[in-house]
Write a structure and sequence with these properties.
Layout lengths: L9 H5 L16 H24 L4 H22 L5 H19 L4 H14 L16 H9 L6 H11 L5 H7 L4 H18 L15 H16 L10 H14 L8 H14 L25 H14 L7 H14 L8 H14 L3 H15 L1 H9 L11 H13 L3 H14 L3 H13 L6 H6 L1
Helix pairs in contact: 2-3, 2-4, 2-5, 2-6, 3-4, 6-10, 7-9, 7-10, 8-9, 10-11, 10-12, 11-12, 12-13, 12-14, 13-14, 14-15, 15-16, 16-17, 17-18, 18-19, 19-20
Length: 455
């Protein structure tokens, strides 16, 4: 099982999503929306606090308690209105539920009291990272480093972090890993059992012991950003709140000596340079825009400057990670004054190195797009046909979207329409579906019956 990327995806090279209201700046007021908002923004911190009380071996119980607190919030707020501090309300309910769960397990009275006292001490205001010690203070980040324990396999670390920290559904994780939901469920079950068997605690190691866990933490943040950059399902293609949370966590990591590595700066650079282009990725009707149709004057120059600064920090030393190479590609896009000035030759060199460093079918598909820009659409199709393990992409809409685009450029309209229809049948995101439907019509193809009925 291997994780793959949406950032720098083939679709990103040809078409993108654009401006929409920033959900973090327009906090929802309806109970259902507010609970969902909290679930996405605060789940990591809530799970972190619950794990402090319940112990790492009770991860499943912490998840159940958090879920029940959310359901109670939805019921209570729907009838009695939203409290002044919804975050504190849910946290308090969750803690009470956790204490009840402990009592129901018939723990010894003295031990229970000790645990509750311990929890109250631990939930006192924490010092800011770096102020008084080298420990990382942010609950979500602390739990993220726990998930990245060396006793847990690398992929399992990321899957666990996405589930309990980032609020991902099993389906979202499965799509990120090109796996089935059943496989992800089994992986999560095995990981939790592994944690229990190994007796992994909640204590956060300091200094050099933290460094080996950094890769798992960065990988989880990367996938969190990817899900925000291009949602795996739903009506919204762009979920900026997830991207902002990923950027916040990465920025927090580099404040800590254990996390202040070149690859951490590279990941932050990649996310900033990618987020800078968000304001130009949708048209006024919410339609997905191709890269060559975007108004580059809308790109956020402040974020680009920050991204380039962190890319400069990432260049210190000899380390070159996948994040360095992807950030380099993002920088090349950001620095091109217009679409025709894009340095596809350098972008292809970056993809060549990325494929050598981190071979995967998705990276190979991205590389094929760069090949097509340099050497023409037929060269791109030939490159796609030669992708090793290409069958892993056959359930992914991006394969057919890119193939359809290249056939369309060759004016092979029948082949283009077939691929766009196949992509449409696999896509689960509204703006992408609308884009693919337009491309089918432009190719002279008929929409699937269901799409015609819906339209």
């Amino acid at each position: 099982m291997s994780k793959d990327s949406h950032v720098g995806s083939p679709l990103a090279a040809t078409s993108e999503v654009g401006p929409r209201a920033d959900p973090t700046k327009t906090e929802p007021t309806q109970p259902a929306l507010l609970v969902e908002h909290f679930f996405r923004h605060e789940k990591g911190r809530l799970h972190g606090a619950l794990v402090r009380l319940l112990g790492v071996h009770n991860l499943s119980l912490a998840e159940d308690v958090a879920q029940e607190a959310m359901l109670r919030a939805l019921r209570t707020w729907s009838m009695g209105g939203v409290p002044a501090n919804p975050s504190a309300w849910i946290t308090q309910v969750a803690m009470n539920l956790a204490r009840d769960a402990l009592r129901h397990r018939k723990m010894a009275t003295g031990k229970e009291a000790a645990i509750i006292t311990h929890h109250e001490q631990m939930t006192a205001p924490l010092p800011v990272a770096g102020e008084t010690s080298q420990e990382i203070r942010d609950d979500a980040l602390r739990l993220m480093f726990v998930c990245a324990h060396p006793e847990i396999a690398p992929d399992a670390q990321v899957i666990l972090a996405l589930k309990i920290l980032c609020g991902f559904s099993t389906g979202e994780i499965a799509r990120a890993f090109l796996a089935t939901e059943a496989a992800i469920e089994k992986q999560l079950t095995r990981t939790k059992q592994r944690i229990a068997d190994a007796g992994i605690g909640y204590e956060l190691p300091e200094g050099e012991d933290l460094a080996p866990r950094l890769d798992g933490v960065l990988a989880a943040i990367y996938l969190l950003f990817n899900e925000g950059y291009k949602a795996s399902s739903g009506d919204r293609l762009l979920r900026e709140e997830l991207c902002q949370e990923a950027i916040r966590l990465a920025a927090l990591i580099i404040t800590h000596p254990a996390g202040r590595a070149p690859r951490s700066h590279a990941l932050l650079a990649l996310m900033l340079l990618t987020a800078a282009r968000f304001p130009a990725r949708l048209d006024e009707q919410g339609g997905l825009l191709r890269l060559d149709d975007q108004d580059r004057s809308k790109w956020d120059q402040q974020l680009i400057a920050q991204g380039l600064m962190h890319l400069g920090h990432a260049a210190q030393g000899t380390e070159i990670s996948e994040y360095h190479l992807q950030a380099g590609i993002a920088a090349l896009h950001c620095l091109a004054p217009d679409y025709t000035s894009t340095d596809w030759e350098k972008i292809l060199l970056h993809y060549d190195e990325l494929l050598r460093l981190k071979p995967s079918p998705v990276v190979a598909l991205n590389r094929a797009v760069a090949v097509a820009h340099l050497h023409g659409p037929q060269a791109g199709l030939d490159t796609i046909a030669a992708i090793p393990q290409r069958e892993k992409l056959e359930g992914h809409y991006l394969l057919y979207t890119v193939t359809g685009e290249l056939h369309w450029r060759l004016q092979n309209h029948q082949a283009a329409a077939w691929n766009f229809r196949r992509a449409l049948s696999l896509s689960q995101v509204g703006p992408e579906q609308a884009y693919l439907a337009r491309m089918i019509e432009r190719s002279g193809g008929a929409l699937p019956e269901a799409e015609r009925s819906a339209g």
